[in-house]
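User: These chains co-purify. Model them together.
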Amino acid sequence: MLAISLVQAFLVLFGAPLLVGWMRQLRSRLEGRVGAGMLQPWRDLVKLLRKAPQQPEGTGPAFRIAPLLGVACGGVAAAAIPLLSTRTGLGAGADLIAVVALLTLATAALALAGLDTGTAFGGMGASREMTITALAEPAVLTAVFALATRVGSTNLPAIVAATLNHGARLASPATLLAAVALGVVVLAETGRLPVDNPATHLELTMMHEAMVLEYSGPDLALIELGAAMRLTVLLGLWSALFAPWGIATGTSVAALAIALAALVAKTALLGALIAVGEVFMAKLRLFRVPELLAGSFLLAVLAVTASFFLA
Amino acid sequence: MNLVGTGLTVAAAAAGAATLCALLVPVRVRALVSGVLSALIGVAGVVAGGAALSGETFARPLPNLLPLAGISIGVDALSGVFLAIAGAVTTVASVYGIGYAAGTGRGRTAQALWPLFAFSLLLVPAAASVSTLLVTWELMAIGSLVLVLCGDPTDGRVREAGVWYAVMTHLGLVVILTGLVWLSAAAHAQTFAGLRAASGGLSPAVRGGVFVLLLVGFGSKAGMAPLHAWLPRAHPEAPSPVSALMSAAMVNLGIYGLVRFGLDLLHGGSRWWWIATLVLGALSAVYGIVQAAVANDLKRLLAYSTVENLGLILVGVGACGVFADSGQPALAALALVAALLHTATHAAFKSLLFLGAGSVVHATGIRDLDELGGLRTRMPVTAGLFTLGALGAAALPGGAGFPSEWLLLQSLIHGLAVPGIVVVVVLPVAVGAIALSAGLAVATFVKALGTGFLAKPRSPAAAQAHEAPASMRAGMWLAAAACAGLAVLPGAAGPALARAAAAGLRGSGTPVSGGVLHQLTALGSTLSPLLLVAVVAAALLLLRAVLMLASGPGRRRAVVPLWDCGAPPLTARMGYTATSFAEPLQRVFDDVLAPESDLDVTPHAESAYLVERVAFSRAVPDRIEHRLYEPVLHSMRRAGQAARVLADGSVHRYLGYGFGGVLVILLILVAAQ
Amino acid sequence: MGTAVLSLLGKIASIGRVAEPAPTPPEPAPADLARRAKALRGSAQVRCVDAGSCNGCEIEIGQAFGPVYDVERYGARIVASPRHADVLLVTGPVTRNMAEPLRRTYQAAAEPRVVIAVGDCAVDCGQFAGGYGVEGAVADVVPVDLAVPGCPPTPDQIVAALRRVTGR
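Assistant: Joint model of the three components:
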């Protein structure tokens, strides 16, 4: 139903900064600080929206469109993934490969915006980000392959419904391997440790940040919102594929309410795990990240072979 | 005579007229007249192809046109796909060529051969006998060779590219000739209908041997690694309309040959044939895109991207063969439809990209991405259309390549239903290879678009670029329209491609009924690119409106200087070049690429500790060429020099050779009795 | 690695909260600063610019953002680029080489923007007044909204200045 898709999109739109706030707050508490509170990212966004819009000279449509595309792709992905219910409005069009491709489109647009500025940092961020994206693709699509062959389809509601019906599958080696492989990919695609440090100020350690150094005001607000939505969408996707308990299969209000509570709980838990993990991890050297992604690809290939032999 | 025949006849007439006009008409109107007539060839080809795809067939033997064997024309739905693609690319490139030729004033030779080359691209799919195929294949090869050399006959690189292309294409022809002659001799038939009927009686060894020869020959034309070395040499050196026609229409004929002979005429063959095709296709895809990712020359990048896409098409064809052999008709049809759709979408975006590259070369005279940059402000139309093509090549939503790669992945995903250990091992690795090539393609085309068109100009020539003239823009707009159409409405081509797949699988005994489309949709996943693009576009507009409302009415964007860390000036030298963009990827794939670097340090005359000059250069050669071809060429050269002993000029020795040769033949004839 | 994680977890659990309790809120800011602070509404992204300081003020600013004083709880956060920033924390007397970069940094920040001069050197050149390499105080190069005197000022004073901007 279209209404459910819209609800999911708005939920992710308004809940993504809250998730980022939750993760930052948890890290603060672990570091012995008080922290700014879960609503701080929203305060930051509102303030940025009210600042004066600027256009650096020499930049063009690529620079202007990247922030919009980041939020738009995140919103469409949120509408397509069965976060609350398998009966989303995009129904037949909610394809797993299409969702992954949409998120890649947003990354490519941001890389082009970084190159559009013509500064050294923009190019550096774009180059590194595209290398990571390119090397994460095999792991993603092979893990999709592993999930889709059991179900016979890459349609997201179909995969989620199949997992809900055959709960024992979640404990099979194929699913566990695919879960780990996709977990590493989620870290890489959202720019979290150990692949990228989202809070760094040192340009030589930046990947995602370096592409957006030139943005300010409302554009920057959309960039940050887009990054937060991407994190939420990817965590929601991971939990829909590997921990789908709570997702409604119908459209009754009670089932949707349970699904909402489950979604909030699962996303908060995954975000907490990432935040706590980041306390113990350091960023990997840039040229070690391909090894990490190659390991993730290997796990995905093992998942596929396991799904055949241990079917 | 039905529409197909009419189309082919009109194309023939237009080709003749165009060639005559190119030779006779005065220079002032030569480009326009021959361009318009060549576009007519293309339109006729599209009409013929379209008619064939809608179910009409055409067969016409012309026994008197060629001594001994005669010409035999036959068109079915499978030929129709390739006719339509070749026709469309011809139209687009001919319109573009009007403006391209006018400036540089390409001579009569190129203008005269272009229509003949285009017509030969229509004749090869229409061939219905072995002799016709071989004659038209050679016509195509010679036409393209001369057109490549017309790029700039005095330039050493162009001549070297021409030599490589000539040798490899003719070696390919020899291999195809051997295979087809062997097949005809074993089957005692020459026409395709006869071969199809007789193939069942041939032994698997004969069929296997013929297939291997045809795989090598047709695969080389299709740019299959390791026989691809001519592609990245010939395509960049040719003039851009010729590159477009070669990359988007000619290489497809290698695929046509494999499908026609392997799946149709040889009745599908054994599984190992198609697994070999699949593996070689996956190898080409990965190798091609890795080389494209580190290429600086814009046209060489596009040529390697052609190698990659043809590799993906070969994966689809290989998968089709495996499924047909395992008795899965729906999956086989799906895989073949995916391969044919990718052929069509590749033709659309590759022609657009090559024409865009041609506009860049026309405007700046530079092909090196390291020296381009900042072309967006001076060439907005070209930049915008190149973006559309790059979107297609990167297989992102909104691009032409997205639906076809999606369909290809779908056919492989369902392939695990096929039993067999080899399939279980090969298919996931094939999916991984496709995924790697898809990811690297995104990085490659972000590089091409970003360093070529965005940022600031890095050389005076790039700073003085001008927009392409009207006819070149018109050609690019036509290609862009095709890209956009295929991107959002690929389903419109569905029934036509299903018919083509049915024609392709006809000989293999796989029952592909009219209900195949129904089976395709029942396979559980669907994609609606139109919906996806529409929803994203709607979201973009909504966000833009919200943003404008939130920042208050009348609040215009202030133009501010770039943030240069406080220390001006920010020059174009500080921006990332294509080499620096690709450097992380080059490091990751260092073992595959093996770049060669050269460091030359000149110290001062007075002291060895003071450096006067440092010169550094790095090049990424084609490693397969380096490791595979050079030893072969080297050993052949040595063998040739060793054999000079046999030809020392003594007449007595030559008479002795003649006498010995006749003796041997007589002995063979006696033994064969 | 497992023992390192466990020992770190144990340390976190045993040490607990390090941040000192929030002191009394400072007096409200002067009029036009208050107008801009209202626009910033509880969130201030900070860019530190060292215009020629001895690093003493930098250490105190570092402590202000550290766990003990924790100015992040009032909404301030350090960012990587002046384009992302609303508040410029300028330290040190402005040397000749840093005058132009400081001006450019100020122009790179989008409106509304606030400049805080931290330390005696930033306010009136401190003990480097009249030096041959010194261009002048920060107020001679860019308009200053808040001054935090001291050599160096304590983290409490820096926190109080930032709280006047964020209003929390």
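DSSP finds 27 helices and five strands in chain B.
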